[in-house]
Amino acid sequence: MTNDDGRPPAIPMTNPGADRVKDVAKLAGRPSRTRRKQFLAEGPQAVREALKAHRECLAAGGTVVVDEVYASRECLDRYPEFEELAEGLLSIRIASELVLAAMTDTVHPQGIVAVCRFVDVPLAEVLSRKPKLIAMLCRIQDPGNAGTVLRAADAAGADAVIFSASSVDVYNPKAVRSTVGSLFHLPVVLGAEVAEVAAQCRAAGIGVLAADGYGALNLDQLQDESAARSFDQETPESGYWLEKPSLWLFGNEAQGLSTAELESSDYRVAVPVYGAAESLNVGTAATVCLYASARAQQRG
Amino acid sequence: MTNDDGRPPAIPMTNPGADRVKDVAKLAGRPSRTRRKQFLAEGPQAVREALKAHRECLAAGGTVVVDEVYASRECLDRYPEFEELAEGLLSIRIASELVLAAMTDTVHPQGIVAVCRFVDVPLAEVLSRKPKLIAMLCRIQDPGNAGTVLRAADAAGADAVIFSASSVDVYNPKAVRSTVGSLFHLPVVLGAEVAEVAAQCRAAGIGVLAADGYGALNLDQLQDESAARSFDQETPESGYWLEKPSLWLFGNEAQGLSTAELESSDYRVAVPVYGAAESLNVGTAATVCLYASARAQQRG
């Protein structure tokens, strides 16, 4: 028996104990990910973005993003776009819900999972593209917060997101899920040192801004100065034009930025708190800062 | 044996099976909360904000916020402020870590827990205070998202947060935790109907804005018009001055605002997405919208 195109039909995977299933499941752990330079993208939205990135990357002469895709028959029936996205590039293997559950660490597997290759790039590659807006996560521990910052950076049109050496692993399944596909939208640099990134950015003409609740500068001031900029004005009162290419540093959830991290920056900028909140969640602060830069740069 | 002040020393609670412990633990469930009109605030930050609200409320002739506080000896030694905050108002009961773990649903209890009375207020009370900025959660299901919106509203200086009838219960321990104390900072209205809230706000001169990815108006336009407003200008091109008293509607995580909810609004406003992100997390969108209104109102 053959399909219309002459290929034999794929046999659905139904054994959750099969070696191949175990190999995929092992990617929930960091040692396997690091050794194989692969990670899991789970659920329709993440896999869709992974396949789009795969297609675009190959079309541009780049490397493979997705190695394998496993999906339930129901999922493919519901989302026919997956077979279109994969067409000519890779075969989607049909798997039972039990097999998919064994492959992933979610309580409710979402019918589709992709084995992806690491997508991070070196800092030099990011800098070679003349970035205007970069977010750096400094020792951020919570996968959900990392995802929120990455997603906010993506929405604000940032050119890259950099994770410091002791931040959460962005390839951890919880972090991948919380980026909702944004991990495949913009370059990510991993395991970087704050002082080194700041120095290289500064050398590339990029200003280094620390998001710091105790900062001497206020984001409102920077926004107002930028909005009111007159044609020939060289330096604002704050000393910094928000429309300049900028690297934002965001600190650990509990401790904020360390003294050394703050000293790596050119300016310390506070996000105004108008109400009684004692502090901002790092995701909220990053959203406000990155959107403020993006608006100023769009205008400038 | 007596303390310096002549009172007998409190006997630490060490029996996790005691009725009192079970009574506290039951507040993790909605039926008990609803019947007793009480909920749990866990951890130093939430309890601190609860006690501050309790003190301020009583000083202003208002009602009790905190009924009981249980803490480990270690927690009180580490944070002496709790005994100062409670002084003259209520006694903090010392409890073992086992008792605290039995009272709460957290994997890592944080040494202190407060039994609080419901803090929500009627819509009429909010409107009587001439609010300038209100956030409404329309069928938001995730406790973490509800907390992020409440916290962003608090940071933006909003005057109230309203939960629609089918939103997550803000008194659910996960939601309380994710507000990190902001639940005690600003009035909360629960179980409201969107159309009713919109009508009452409109009657009170408050504009109703729907945060909607497909909105005809763009938040950048509203911000630019507001920033460039000249003294005698009556109506901007968009039709809406962002510095006006405003109610923002934020929709369900997966579906956004329903047709009926959109129709309750005066204007549908899109948060710009500059990058490749397909949509914004509701917490991110709420942050950008509420901060935009707050800035315009501060300026206006």
Automatic annotation (TrEMBL), chains A, B:
<feature type="region of interest" description="Disordered">
    <location>
        <begin position="1"/>
        <end position="20"/>
    </location>
</feature>
<dbReference type="InterPro" id="IPR029064">
    <property type="entry name" value="Ribosomal_eL30-like_sf"/>
</dbReference>
<dbReference type="GO" id="GO:0008168">
    <property type="term" value="F:methyltransferase activity"/>
</dbReference>
<comment type="similarity">
    <text>Belongs to the class IV-like SAM-binding methyltransferase superfamily. RNA methyltransferase TrmH family.</text>
</comment>
<dbReference type="InterPro" id="IPR029028">
    <property type="entry name" value="Alpha/beta_knot_MTases"/>
</dbReference>
<feature type="domain" description="RNA 2-O ribose methyltransferase substrate binding">
    <location>
        <begin position="40"/>
        <end position="122"/>
    </location>
</feature>
<dbReference type="InterPro" id="IPR053888">
    <property type="entry name" value="MRM3-like_sub_bind"/>
</dbReference>
<dbReference type="InterPro" id="IPR001537">
    <property type="entry name" value="SpoU_MeTrfase"/>
</dbReference>
<dbReference type="Pfam" id="PF00588">
    <property type="entry name" value="SpoU_methylase"/>
</dbReference>
<protein>
    <submittedName>
        <fullName>TrmH family RNA methyltransferase</fullName>
    </submittedName>
</protein>
<keyword id="KW-0489">Methyltransferase</keyword>
<dbReference type="InterPro" id="IPR051259">
    <property type="entry name" value="rRNA_Methyltransferase"/>
</dbReference>
<dbReference type="GO" id="GO:0032259">
    <property type="term" value="P:methylation"/>
</dbReference>
<dbReference type="Pfam" id="PF22435">
    <property type="entry name" value="MRM3-like_sub_bind"/>
</dbReference>
<dbReference type="InterPro" id="IPR013123">
    <property type="entry name" value="SpoU_subst-bd"/>
</dbReference>
<keyword id="KW-0808">Transferase</keyword>
<dbReference type="InterPro" id="IPR029026">
    <property type="entry name" value="tRNA_m1G_MTases_N"/>
</dbReference>
